[in-house]
Each structure stands twice: as C-alpha cells, then as structure tokens.
Design brief:
Number of helices: 15
Helix content: 40-55%
Strand order of the largest sheet: 6-5-4-7
Order of helices and strands: EHEEHEHEHEHHEHHHHEEHEHHHH
Structural class: alpha/beta
Largest sheet: 4 strands, parallel
Amino acid sequence: MKKRVIDKNFCMSSYLTFRYIENENIDFYENVFHSVDIPFPDDKKIIVNNALEIADAYKKAFESVKDRKLGLLLSGGMDSACLAAFLPAGTDAYTFRFLDNGFTNHDITRAEKYAEKYHLNLHYVDINWDIVEKNLPKLLLKKGAPVHSIEPQIMEAALQAKKDGVEMMVAADGSDLVFGGMDKMLSKDWKYDEWKEFYTFCNPEKVLKNPVSMEYVFERYKLPNNEIDYLRFIDEIFAHESSASYCNAFITAEMKYTPFFDPSGMVKMGSPLDLDRIRRGESKYLIRELFKLCYPEFDIPEKIPMPRPVDIYFEKWSGPKREEFKKNLDMSEFTGNQKWQIYCLEQFLNLHEPL
C-alpha cells in the first residue's frame, strides 16, 4: 500500500491540467480524501461487433435491473436516445432546460421526440446559476476535490428524480469512450508536444503562483520520434476523469442505488476502432447504426457535449482573489470552461481554508 501524501500544489495543478487528481494517493488536505470513478469490471464486459449485438447487450443489461425504478438522463444525442429505446414505456426521463439569458439548449426538441416515440415520461430539469451555487458545496465536499462543470446540473437531475421515486439513474457516459466518440481526440495521430498542449484543459503555469509540472503523466505515453500513445492515454486518463464526474454527482444526491447505470460502459468492441472511418466523419459508427435501427425516421444528430452555459456564467467574472493564484489575471484569455475550473478550485480552497 502506497503512503498517502498531502500536496496542495500538486492537486491544484493536476485538477487544472486533467480536471481530476491524477494520483489517487495524493490529496489537498489532511482528512480530505478525493474520490475516484467506479468503473465496470473489464472482464465482465460483453464483446460487441455490430448494432444488433449492442442492442442485445443493452436489453440484457436492463433486464438485470428490472426490479429497480430507473430514470434516464436524456439528451438530444445518439447515446442516450439509444438507451431510451430499451427502457420500459413510462420510464421517467430527464432533460436539461437552461434558464439563463441567451442560452438555448437545442437538444430539447430531439429529446422530446425520443421520449414520445418510446412513451417515456419526460421531465425538464431547469438549471440556472442559483442551482449551481446551491449544489456546488456538497459536490466539493463529497469529492474531496474541485469538480467538473456538469456535476451541479447532473446532481439537480438526480435530486428531482428522487422526488419522483426514481431509485437509480441511467446515463450514457461510456459510449464516447467505447465506440469512438471523441472525434477531435481521434482526428489524427498526434505528436507528443501538440497532444500535451491540446489535452491540457487549463495550464497551471498561467494561473498558479506555485505550479507543479504534470509532464510525468504525459511522458508515460511518449513514443519514439516525438509521438504519443494517445489511444492508451484516452483509455487511462480521460476515462477516469469523465466517469468520476457522473459518479460524484449521483452519490452526492444520495440515490438509492449508486453510482449510476450505464449499459454503454458494460460492453467493449470486438475489433479496434476504425480510425479512418471516424476521421471521415463517422464517429461512433456502430452507435450510428444502432440509432438508425431504433429511429429509422430520424436524422442522425451530430455529437454535442453536455451543454452548460459557462460562458454566460463567467462573462463578467473578474477572476480569483486567493493568494494561490497569480495576481491580475487577464480573464479574457480563458475560455468559459477554464474560468469554471479556476472558480471551482478557488471555491474548494475557500471551503477548507476560509479567507
């Protein structure tokens, strides 16, 4: 068993770089333990080679939890739409509706059509900045670290579902990873330096007074000729960051059965990803085929990340005030998602070291 280490500077830099604490043995503070994702065991995953085999695996997965009252996070994308097709009529489904000025969630119309086709009971989860502020402290305390910008709204959906009697939430978090949905990440064979720049979410050297280099993480995947094993990086780094966000949101909401249920994360492809096919515009080509089986009358929707209006939330934010951050940061240099990370990190520090 490795010795636990307390290193706030490391944790701040890791969160900004990867959106999670990469080393499970290092924490911000004494008596604060950061949580990790809870992956489905690889040796229990069902191998699939085509859309019909995926459909059969999804049916079997839902059959295994038929005694639980399920609720579905339903967007306008392919992944949750395909899960919706295998749920019983009358299942409660939840889609986000944002109330802040100027932000339109184009997913809603498609989600309504999916729910209508399979007779799901669709609920809207209204989200604004007040909801984010309400849920954020509990999420930070439960995770033992700053959180992803999607977590407050996922938690709100879970809280609403609990009131409706839902015992376990269904989400299609694993589909991108399993079926090749990260079209930008898979768009080419990356050089080491360009991948490092591309994947760093927010550069700690631009934000923190005492940044810690995360170079060692990237170096694990470095190949000769300045290349990088980006596919293994995605499987081992990106996968943990994404899943942990869903896990924390549902656990913090105290659903009866946690963390959540994801049939798309309970399968694996029998053949390596066809990168040429993805690069020709067919990301998640097997899920595209499944979608056409389930919704032959609908056009295949283009991939859209889970919406969250961070650009609106932080449009006028002047930046962090704590001593850990560099002074007089020019916030116009940061994206909305980067501003969220900086803001969220400061809120986490304030919880444990009030100013």
